[in-house]
Amino acid sequence: MTAAELPDTLGPARGSRYPCKLRTVLGLFAAEGTGHDEFVAGLTEWHRTVALEWRGRGWSTRTGVRIAGTEPLLQASIGDLVGETISPIDGFATIDLEDYDPTAAQFDRLLEPVEDLADSLAGIIDPARSFAMAGLANLVLAGEGPVAMMLMCTHRSGVDLVDTHTWWCSFGDVMRSAPSGHTLGYHQVQCDPELSQSAAQRSGLSSTAFDLGDLVYLTDVDSFVVAATAHRPSVDPGPPINQRDDFITFEGAVGAFCTMLAP
User: Fold this and answer.
1) How high is the pLDDT of residue 233?
2) Would you state the pLDDT for residue 237?
3) CA dihedral defined by 65, 66, 68, 72, rounded to 10 degrees?
4) How far apart are CA 204 and CA 26, in angstroms?
5) How far apart are CA 201 and CA 222, in angstroms?
6) Are residues 62 and 94 in contact, defined by beta-carbon separation less than 8 angstroms?
7) Contacts by 126-131 with C-beta closer than 8 Å and gap 24+?
8) Rounded to the nearest 10 degrees, how much is the dihedral formed by the CA atoms of 107, 109, 110, 114?
9) Cα distance between residue 221 and residue 28, in whole Å
10) Are strands 87-88 and 248-260 parallel, antiparallel or unpaired?
């Protein structure tokens, strides 16, 4: 594969030393007047309807729902660290094309499952607030778990997105070299604006400026929070850690600790 076959924005993930695959990410907000329990029930029913069917056709889907009451923990462990308020999101879903040799020719197939998706979730989600984004999942740690920390943010204005994605891959190397007992998986979602726009149009969800996503799969929330708040560096950690604010911004970021739904 030549670099020209994929957008430049996806080149860093495609060329990283970790496996990657095409992924669509759906950031989901509950419909107006829909309580959290009702949202969870509706999303669970949708997930169980599509998960096994899509798996048999070459896609996999994972769905997470926010764990009510963990919003302050996310702010303490992530928001306070980056100096921004992380707005809670109600849930998310990912749809992967199960091919670890991704090509541009597969983009249309990646987006097939999201066709008119807003209609299938009518009354459960707010399509005007919910969003779709798409690109490559860089599987720094390919594992999964019962709980996920989901965080979506953007690259810094004035910096090329490809440069941000390149930096992020180096950050992934640092994460991989510092294993923890509570982290089971670490997926970097590196998105392309045009592909994300196509995903939004086909799904009936909103387009978004988010072009970076973290999905950290965990054994449990408390262990992650304790580790994140107990080990704040007292000295300059050096690059790439201390370059974070040069490449990404968490202004307007959304996220949540989520329970992952079973098929």
Assistant:
1) 67
2) 86
3) 170
4) 11
5) 38
6) yes
7) 126/29, 126/30, 126/31, 126/32, 127/204, 127/205, 127/206, 128/206, 129/29, 129/206, 130/26, 130/27, 130/28, 130/29, 130/205, 130/206, 131/26, 131/27, 131/200, 131/205, 131/206, 131/207, 131/208, 131/210
8) 120
9) 20
10) parallel
Instruction: Quote the pLDDT of residue 40.
Output: 98
At 131, list the tokens.
């969003």
User: What is residue 263's predicted lDDT score, i.e. its pLDDT?
Assistant: 80
Nearest CA-CA partner of 107 in 23, 204, 201: 23
* Separation between Cα atoms, residue 232 and residue 218, nearest integer Å: 19
Mean pLDDT by 10 residues, the chain (263 residues): 73 96 98 97 96 94 98 96 96 97 94 96 98 98 97 97 97 88 95 97 97 96 91 80 95 98 89
* Cβ neighbours of residue 210 closer than 8 Å, sequence gap 6 or more: 27, 131, 133, 152, 153, 154, 191, 196, 254
Query: Measuring CA to CA, which residue among 183, 149, 180 is closest to residue 75?
Result: 149
Token pair of 67 as six digits: 């764990």
Residue type, 7: P
Q: 22 Cβ partners below 8 Å, 6+ apart?
A: 96, 97, 99, 102, 106, 107, 110, 134, 135, 136, 137
Residue 64 phi/psi, 5-degree rounding, is -125, 145
Q: Between the CA of residue 3 and those of 8, 47, 57, 123, what are the distances in Å? A: 7, 35, 28, 42
pTM: 0.95
